[in-house]
Design goal:
The chain has a four-stranded antiparallel beta sheet. It has a two-stranded antiparallel sheet with strand order 1-2. Helices cover about 55% and strands about 15% of the residues. It has helices at about 5-10, 15-30, 50-65, 85-100, 120-130, 145-150, 155-170, 175-190, 195, 210-235; strands at about 35-40, 40-45, 75-80, 105, 110, 130-140. The chain has ten helices and six strands. By secondary structure, it is α+β, with helices and mostly antiparallel strands. A hairpin with a 2-residue loop joins strand 4 (about 105) and strand 5 (about 110). The protein has three domains: about 5-45, no CATH class; about 75-140, Alpha-Beta Plaits; about 155-235. The termini are close together.
Amino acid sequence: MWTWPLVTGLRQLGIEEKAARQAIARTANEGLIVATRDGRRTQQSLTKKGRRLLEEGAERIYGLLREAADWDDRWFVLTVSVPEAHRRLRHQMRTRLAWAGLGSPLPGVWVTPHVEKEKEVAAVVSELNIDAFSWVGPTAAIGDVRSLVRRAWVLDDVAKRYRSFLTAFSAASPKTPDVIFVTQVRLVHAWRRFPFLDPALPPSLLPPKWPSAPAATMFHRQHERWSDSANSYWA
């Protein structure tokens, strides 16, 4: 895409031109986009790394809560050791493992009831070159599973965010193409945070009246409702 429409679209979202251009430059520095010149104009294109990031992100964002498979009562458990002095590495590890849906009930211990995450976690461990061991198995007699869940994930905060999301977008009814475009982008921008926040736990591990299903239904309904108009306006 040409740079100017991108800057204009960001301005409609309340981002000033200087800040938008700085964000574009940072995105290029991270290797996600690359610029090519055509006379006085500049075109931005996704790199392979950027395309992979968006494809993986889209799969996670739009696939969140789409399917709820039966749980076989097994857990994937990971223990990791990263020195306190390596703060950047620790931050990268926590971000990547949280994105994969793991929670940390104790320092150095990460868990998830989704044992199929093993391959994804193994890639993170390999890429970051950290010391780790893992196990897969059912819960034993010692300890309380619900206590583990409360320590691993801040579910009360996740529930509040879902309810705020429902309040913000369930009654939204933009009319003009430009407002529909802005509302659609903000809808996806708000929803894309939930894969970081919601571990998509089996129903047996969740508090009663958990709001994720109503929020997911509303998101997909509104997204489909506004999609054609928003895409046409952007094009």
